[in-house]
Amino acid sequence: MRSTERKDNLDSIIGVDVGGTHTDLVLLDPTGGRIVPIKVPTTRHNLTVGILDGLDQLLDSVNEVNVSRMTLGTTAGTNAVIERRGAKTALITTEGFGDLLHIGRQQRPRLYDFFVDKTRPLLRRRDVFEVGERVLYDGTVVQEPEEEELSRLAEKLRAGGYESVAVCLLHSYAFDDHERRILKRLSEALPGVEFSLSSDVAPEIREYERCNTTVADAFIKPLLRRHFDELEAALRARRIPELFIMQSSGGLMKAQEARRSVVSTLNSGPAGGVAGGAYLAEHAGISDLITLDMGGTSADIAIVRDGRPAIRNEFELDPVPGAHHYLATGLPIKAPSVDVNPIGAGGGSIAWLDEGEILKVGPESAGSTPGPACYGRGGTRPTVTDAHAVLGRLGAERPLGGYLKLEPELAYEAIREHLAGPLGTSVEEVAQGIISVVNSNMVVGMRLASVYRGFDPRDFTLAAFGGAGALHAIELARELGMRRVLIPPHPGAVSALGLLAADVKHLSGRTLIKTVTPDTIGEIDRAYAALEKETLKLMRGHGLEADRVKLVRTAEARYVGQGYELPIWVDSFLGSAAAEDVVEAFHTVHEKQYGYRRPSERIEIVNLRLEAVGPMPKPSVPVLEGECTQDASAAVLGSRDLIVAGTCWTAEVYDRSRLKTGNRVQGPAVIEDLTSTVYLPPETEATVDALGNLLGWVGPERGGME
Amino acid sequence: MKDAVLMEVMGNALRAAAEEMGVALVRAAYSTNIRDRKDCSCAVFDAKGNMIGQAEHIPAHLGSMAAAVKAVLQKHPREEVRPGDAFAYNDPFTPGGSHLPDIALVAPVFVDGELAFWAVNRAHHSDVGGMVPGSTSARAEEIYQEGLRIPIVRIQREGRIDDDLLELICLNVRTPEERRGDLLAQFAANNVGSQRLRQLANKYGLRTVQEYASALIDHTEKRVRAHLRELPEGSYEGEDFLEWEGAKSGLINIKVRAEIRDGTFLADFAGTHPQVLAPFNIPIDNVKTAVYYVVKGITDWQLPFNEGVFRPISVTAPAGSIVNPVAPAATGMSTSEAPNRIVDALLKALAPVVPDRVTAASCSTRNTIIVGGHDRRSRRSFIYYETYGGGQGARPNKDGMDAVPSHLGNTANAPTEMTEAHYPLWVRRYSIVRDSEGSGRFRGGLGVLREVEVLEGAEGLTLSTLCDRRKLRPYGLFGGKPGALGHDFLERDGKKQQIPGKTVMPLRAGDRHRIESPGGGGYGDPLTRDPHRVLEDVLEGWVNPQRADQVYGVVLRRVGSTYQVDEEATRRRRSSSATQTEEMA
Q: How far is residue A391 from each of residues A372, A396, A428, A485, B40, measured CA to CA in Å?
């Protein structure tokens, strides 16, 4: 292999993706032009142990290399929140509003379930302390915090043994003076205690969401700081100078910076996958894609447009399962995040019969223990993976991931006993049915997620990865009317690869509610300039001078009196922009989105947002060497019986690692590698591009969407 | 027998068609009420008007959706319906009617020239004319005061929207541009549904889709009947009350007899109060909404909504009663207060039969507060509209949820900071109402308190409130005590006075309005509550330590800054309380 482009930087870099059960590490060595993946078990009691174990194995397996940085994507924060394993945290809030977390948005998570409960708040009520103070919406101070009360409060916090303190006062997104005074007073009195101010963490209007975000930050801060510190020390000992952390937005931040606002690292696992998919697709010349990351228990989908993953400014942690997507029921986190939509379908999803008449798949999952029946670990209920085993898409010849040998007869038995027997049909027919049903669930989820965001899936390429994504991708694309499927090399390691490819990114925002007029435009511009100044300082800390940083100003605005906001690009704010330009920009966006404009209405800015991107030295994607030939026969491992729609086909089984650029594989076929399997149905074909991607071409639609 | 796989795939596709209609409607709508509050519903029907798939939005439209197509077919037989037609109506006295702001749009779907399906949606329009902005007034006595009445009209004929009709509607409302936009969004939604249904027919063949849609209905019906057969047969009565000054006793009773027999469920409202000169009357199809909600809740919350749910359930009510009013009754509140009271009456009837599946009475009022006036700061007129949750009734195995909307409502609250940004108001306090729970082995949920002060610069203000459970507490079950009443206060010039729950009165700057919503009823004897749960409530501050002793018989010992349960003293205290209770009985 060789590299597509030579960069000045020839040091290796390492990406580490810490998942719930496995930690994936990837080393990219530009001189050798190779990607080395490794997988180790996640050590949940102390994540550092597992990461270092994997790191040492990885470094041992390659010859002397200089590693310039390691990038970490982790679910450590998310898990600590979901399992309520954070620090002993207190919240300080405005008098009269101490029950804020408990009331939340007040909705019931399920409409018809008398027995459902709201998601439990992160803190107990007795860890919330009210302070006499109040600022009104327009900045009028009606009550100052009193020194004496703060002293008493400091005493209480000390006595309570709190490790971290969140402070969230009303209207502090615009007027942070009281929060800062409380911080100053208390941090003097309570050395060693970590503080999170809502005016730092999420300076945006809507107190419950801001407060919960601040509390989550304080809750995981001590834990993550320790984790980052340990890792940095261990890296120094291995002469790796820098640790970067993946944020939920898909951008990198130095660990030193990430320590300040740890809430931005929540959800960074899925973000790595999307970033990796986008990066690989971009190199393949594809800029609009829907990514499908399907593993054992769930599938995540995300939309990438013009090479940029769609971002949302708020997401929910720990939502109530089965809650309708319109309801606010989880713990809201106001932090920019790659817009990832979970669909409750994975290889471990269990198939069952509803009243003997309807075949259902999921939401219950066999997970990794006991796992699907064919894993031979004691699972007896039939799963999606078992259906693949029966149909021949997953084979028993080569162990999955190099260590797990499937036992298709156990899959056969599970389906016979629970489904085929009661239905009086053949096991093969039911196995096909399980796939049809799970695909149908996923098609609905993918379609709704796209149309809800205003996109038509037919305009996109489907990028499939994760352990199970490539088994379903071609059939899903066909159902959705998508013409092309991209399956990157090492589909099981795309998340870790995304960590190597990401740029330094900082998204910031603040609420500034202002009607846009020639009189206010200057103030709006100054507010952006202040955000930019802060951001550029932060970027300099990453060795990125202003001329290398790309800044994009956006805003959320609305017609005065409207209850909802619309995101607009406001490059027109730059320099001495005229208010009319901004107003016109909003009218145009509004018309495009909703089909009408209200020329007589005034425009009101609500939130300012700033995106700063600092390009990092990129790993060049290794390209495959060798002749361009269509003939893939050199990669054939053997053949296997595949059952498709009741017919048995003898299909070729290919070794993915032996496929060369230009090779063409006709379905029906199965293409295997260590971490995943690609299934090509009849009437489809896939070609290998110069980067080792498989590009699946979906044949004529079968009654897909109009 | 039908193919088990195709059953699921088809069920998915039909539900997805309805969900996608919902996406189209919400995205294309102009008004906040539809776009943000999602006050709308979408469904697909078979040719005869049986619902075959519904999107889950808000429960309040269920019963009226179910009847929509059949209402149209009653007026326009199939032969008269042409491809590209669509029908609109909002009249409460047409089958499927509820209140005037809800406009239904019903469109036939033709496949190869054959009327094969229907796509239907219903949306709450934020104004349809009438005596007040927003159309719904607590003072309305007859429907003519509540806005424009639209009978079933053919608003689209063979693909062409009838502009004259649109103009007629828009001329009668306060926000014509918004109405037009919302109506066009309703057309767009039906187009999406129609497209998806035709694709399904292309893919599988029309007959196959129709057969499977019927099979899915039969399957659901079978499930509902099987669930109902598990319940003891018999006839069970319950009653609950709405509060209204205009009634002789100050109360409007809702009396219901639930009859469960051979897998069917009948709700008979004989004995319920006659219709009133107030907007509490509920058209019978909307009464069905409450009944369906209860049956789903006590059997299986995951039951799909289609005709199969409706078939085993019937509702009867005397004509001219508030649960089956005749024109020209006012029905403005027919989707809010009364259906929740029907739910609580039904749960009370069913409690002795299915004690493990019901809840005690919930807050069950929306606690609607409207402040209208002019804001000198922004030079705009404004209408501040907010509804508050309260305590959920306690459950057989756990406490009721605190601070949630009850039963058929489920809207989110408005953030305090947003409220203060939009209106000349200062929210002084937003909290849980301590000690408002109906005590019990499992306690009812706690109510919510909000105190709002009017700022200088606001003028010409009117406060309208529509709150219930101000006289009769939400009942408890099996020894559980009732939840606390709701309370409303007005503080002016330093003097605080209690005001009625339903009122219309002028406000001025400096006034403070305070609402405390009701708590949920308790379940089981409070003396049997786990003392550690009582301790937890005390430590969280929800329950006062004195009440722990007096109500729950739990003796707490102060240890430093915290409390512990004195197990021995609690045992003694509880056994003597139990003896006292027996003596009294």
A: 15, 12, 7, 22, 44
ipTM rounded to 2 decimals: 0.93
- Spatial distance between the Cα atoms of B375 and B442, rounded to a whole number of angstroms: 46
| SS3 (DSSP) at B90 | coil
Angle at which helices A384-391 and A427-452 cross, to 10°: 130
Which of B1, B2, B5, B367 is the best substitution to test chain A (most A C-beta atoms within 10 A)? Answer: B5
Percent helix, strand, coil in chain B (nearest 5)?
A: 35, 25, 40
CA A480 vs CA A446, A474, A704, B111: distances in Å: 9, 10, 6, 22
Measured CA angle at A244 (ends A238, A249), to 5 deg: 160
Extract the tokens encoding A207: 């107190």
Average pLDDT, chain A: 88
- Chain B residues close to A126, C-beta within 8 Å: 539-541
Q: Which residue has the higher pLDDT, B385 or B489?
A: B489
Amino acid letter, A621: V
Residue A471 Cα, gap to closest chain B Cα (Å): 19
Q: Are the beta carbons of B28 and A206 separated by less than 8 Å?
A: no
Distance from CA of A455 to the nearest CA of B (A): 12
Distance CA B246, CA B223 (A): 44
Smallest CA-to-CA distance from A347 within A434, A274, A428, A278 is with A434
Q: Which pairing describes strands B495-498 and B448-454: parallel, antiparallel, or unpaired?
A: unpaired
Give the three-class secondary structure for B338.
helix
B345-to-B161, B334, B484 alpha-carbon distances in Å:
44, 16, 18
Set of chain B residues whose Cβ sits within 8 Å of the Cβ of A112: 59, 293, 296-297, 301, 303
The amino acid present at A169, given as its one-letter code, is L
Question: Do residues A347 and A381 make contact, with C-beta atoms less than 8 angstroms apart?
Answer: no
- Residue A543 is given by DSSP the state T
Q: What's residue A2's pLDDT?
A: 38
Backbone angles phi, psi at A222, to 5 degrees: -60, -45
Nearest 10 degrees: Cα torsion B98, B103, B104, B107: 160
Exposed, middle or buried, A107 (CB in 10 Å: 0-12/13-18/19+)? Answer: buried
- SS3 annotation, A612-634: EEECCCCCCCEECCCCCCCCCHH
Low-confidence ranges of chain A (pLDDT < 50): 1-8, 572, 701-706
Contact yes or no for B358/B477 (Cβ under 8 A): yes
DSSP structural state of residue B321: B
Give the predicted TM-score (pTM) of the model: 0.92
